[in-house]
Amino acid sequence: MAEPNFALYRQLPAIDKLLQLDEVQILVEQSGIHWVTECLREMQAQARACISQKGQLPEWHENWLKELSVRHSALGESALKNVFNLTGTVLHTNLGRAVMSKSAIDAVSQVMSSPVTLEYSLDGAMRGHRDRAIADLLCKLTGAEDACIVNNNAAAVLLLLATVAQGQQVIVSRGELVEIGGAFRVPDVMAQAGCQLIEVGTTNRTHLRDYENAINEHTALLMKVHTSNYSIEGFTAEVEGAELAELGKKHQLPTAIDLGSGSMIDMTAYGLPAEPMPHTYLSQGIDLVSISGDKLLGGPQAGIILGKKKWIDAIQKHPLKRALRVDKMTLAALEATLKLYLTPEKLITDLPTLRWLTRSSETIKNSADSILVTLQAFYGDKFIVEVEPCLSQIGSGSLPIDRLPSFAITFAPLDGKGSSVESLAAKWRQLPHPVIGRLKDGKLWLDLRCLDDEHALLQVLLS
Ligand SMILES: *Cc1c(COP(=O)(O)O)cnc(C)c1O
């Protein structure tokens, strides 16, 4: 029996004919004959599949050259697209957490483009490992005796536990067995580090005597974990850092705190909710504290362990350190970020994370008001466009219950116009510079807290 779509198949252009066209030759010069031929073969295969499954040619059949050039442009695009983060979550893990300061960006580009003294001392004196210079800076900022830098805070906790307590017991309060988004769960990390977790106390109340009663000859570490993404309220009790440090001294056991985000500075001085600071615990006598580099610190993804020299030395020498160490780009970005903390009065302008967190709702409202009319004129036939108050989040598990007053431009569907906020959100996600908002109460919310340039936003939303 004759193939019913024979006439359609005959309309498909021959690849060798296409390859001879000048327009195609330009692409061959740019990206090579291999890529262009493969792309044309793929288009052929897709067109054939379309004919056999739907009995028709693909939409782009009218213009193969245009389709080829669209696919060619996509080749040059990065998988990591720049987006507008208008979700209202400042440290958005899925959007890469902290945005770097100008000085961190410059520092990274410097070390990328040239050999550097990563583990090389120009005066011939051996100073040990690659963390040395930045560890000194961390000590200056936190009062720690020494520091160790690894890939992220999860790695920091793993390395700390493996070094201090492998094959032994670690005592932690039941109320602090945290799970951070993704796969970080305190009991699982303990198991991976080869430690036995000893849970003490109850979910809502843990006392010093609970820790003390659990101490035996197998105990290697007393640990606290900052409950960064939840809070236990009501009839509660937790053991303070100072008490735990005291207990550790009494029994000659080391103490550690995973602070999660942590902050180098007092957040309340900037009108923000209090966040624990490493130097508070170190000065209380806690031996080791770990924090993230890309949460409130506002730097690159990294994990920082601060504490007593004796323990940091052991941690630096553990074989896992080699697997978890950071590269020169991370060290450069971290150094530049930390240097900003040496002049705290400039932090609020130079560190994007802190600049966005401290923007007043009034400033954000002014920003929203300045583009409202233009957006109404463009989207007003299908949507009710308004400026409305909202609450931003810090994100990344920092300060979970606290919200920051902010303003958003909201888009609500005009009844009967067949418009949906879901499809508007989807359309904006497909833009060359995608705009990411938040769907809530049947509206699409663009929280302008993290928007630096209203005109850049208008440019993409009005196209
Ligand atoms: C965020 C967090 C972690 C994990 O830190 P990463 O840098 O994301 O690996 C671990 N512990 C606590 C308490 C945290 O808040």
TrEMBL record:
<comment type="function">
    <text>Converts seryl-tRNA(Sec) to selenocysteinyl-tRNA(Sec) required for selenoprotein biosynthesis.</text>
</comment>
<keyword id="KW-0711">Selenium</keyword>
<keyword id="KW-0663">Pyridoxal phosphate</keyword>
<keyword id="KW-0648">Protein biosynthesis</keyword>
<dbReference type="InterPro" id="IPR025862">
    <property type="entry name" value="SelA_trans_N_dom"/>
</dbReference>
<keyword id="KW-0963">Cytoplasm</keyword>
<dbReference type="GO" id="GO:0005737">
    <property type="term" value="C:cytoplasm"/>
</dbReference>
<comment type="subunit">
    <text>Homodecamer; pentamer of dimers. Binds only one seryl-tRNA(Sec) per dimer.</text>
</comment>
<dbReference type="Pfam" id="PF03841">
    <property type="entry name" value="SelA"/>
</dbReference>
<comment type="pathway">
    <text>Aminoacyl-tRNA biosynthesis; selenocysteinyl-tRNA(Sec) biosynthesis; selenocysteinyl-tRNA(Sec) from L-seryl-tRNA(Sec) (bacterial route): step 1/1.</text>
</comment>
<dbReference type="InterPro" id="IPR015421">
    <property type="entry name" value="PyrdxlP-dep_Trfase_major"/>
</dbReference>
<protein>
    <recommendedName>
        <fullName>L-seryl-tRNA(Sec) selenium transferase</fullName>
        <ecNumber>2.9.1.1</ecNumber>
    </recommendedName>
</protein>
<comment type="similarity">
    <text>Belongs to the SelA family.</text>
</comment>
<dbReference type="InterPro" id="IPR018319">
    <property type="entry name" value="SelA-like"/>
</dbReference>
<dbReference type="InterPro" id="IPR004534">
    <property type="entry name" value="SelA_trans"/>
</dbReference>
<dbReference type="GO" id="GO:0004125">
    <property type="term" value="F:L-seryl-tRNA(Sec) selenium transferase activity"/>
</dbReference>
<dbReference type="GO" id="GO:0001717">
    <property type="term" value="P:conversion of seryl-tRNAsec to selenocys-tRNAsec"/>
</dbReference>
<dbReference type="InterPro" id="IPR015424">
    <property type="entry name" value="PyrdxlP-dep_Trfase"/>
</dbReference>
<feature type="modified residue" description="N6-(pyridoxal phosphate)lysine">
    <location>
        <position position="295"/>
    </location>
</feature>
<dbReference type="GO" id="GO:0001514">
    <property type="term" value="P:selenocysteine incorporation"/>
</dbReference>
<feature type="domain" description="L-seryl-tRNA selenium transferase N-terminal">
    <location>
        <begin position="9"/>
        <end position="48"/>
    </location>
</feature>
<dbReference type="Pfam" id="PF12390">
    <property type="entry name" value="Se-cys_synth_N"/>
</dbReference>
<keyword id="KW-0808">Transferase</keyword>
